[in-house]
From TrEMBL:
Organism for this UniProt entry: Prochlorococcus marinus XMU1408
Keyword terms: Purine biosynthesis, Transferase
GO molecular function per UniProt: phosphoribosylglycinamide formyltransferase activity
InterPro entries assigned to the protein according to its UniProt record, in alphabetical order: Formyl_transf_N, Formyl_transf_N_sf, GART, GART_AS
GO biological process: 'de novo' IMP biosynthetic process
Summary of the function given for this chain in its UniProt record: Catalyzes the transfer of a formyl group from 10-formyltetrahydrofolate to 5-phospho-ribosyl-glycinamide (GAR), producing 5-phospho-ribosyl-N-formylglycinamide (FGAR) and tetrahydrofolate.
Protein name per UniProt: Phosphoribosylglycinamide formyltransferase
Amino acid sequence: MKQDNREYTDKKLSYHLNDLNLISPLDSEIPLFEPKIKLGILASGNGSNFEYIIKSIQNKQLNAEISILIVNNPNCLAIKKAIKYKIPYVIINHRDCDSRVEHDMLVMKKLEELSVELVVMAGWMRIVGKEIINMYKNRLINIHPSILPSFKGIDAIQQAIDHRVTITGCTVHYVQKEVDSGSIIIQAAVPIKKQDTKDSLKKRIQKMEHIILPLAIATVAKDIRTNFKDKK
Ligand code: GAR
């Protein structure tokens, strides 16, 4: 019998281990809201999360449009995805700026120019300053590859391996001044297998990221459209 598919049955319950909830909170449906929300996506890397946001919009799970992809790294693969899906993008290279504040200001100017309503840090490998955080209070979210508050900061997947935890995962949270510390919106758990390498674990974490990020965007967008609560 394959362990992962072991079946548990009693009078009320009948489920497979694979069906156990690994995402929380998980509503049975993706939150719905009107009208369409304008997203600004910030990315520095491969852009796989960016691509899954696009797919969620295409398959009508997410009532959104991506006003702009902003990248800080001119060589990042997210750009190729923007071209493939015909999403407007701009490179704002931090190396061309004299300070972090100057870079933040350019990013913020672009977001404001396009009346972006919700900003998603989808693999954005830069700390954002208080100017952006204040401007987009409750409207700026980040995805991080660990179950926060464990393993904040860089190389979260390696941190989990080094600590020999047996479950890690990913978190979408609001952004506040302290890195990886804002209120949690949604998390997913990913078991670590004995034979895992950093790459194999990263692949499984990212699979969950691709599910929870569109869910988190819909959750926050619904919040923006209904009751704009004060969250840290
Ligand atoms: C994602 O795994 C995300 O969690 C991580 O970068 C990756 C980007 O992948 N973000 C951080 O580590 C932020 N601290 P992608 O470019 O393929 O979406």
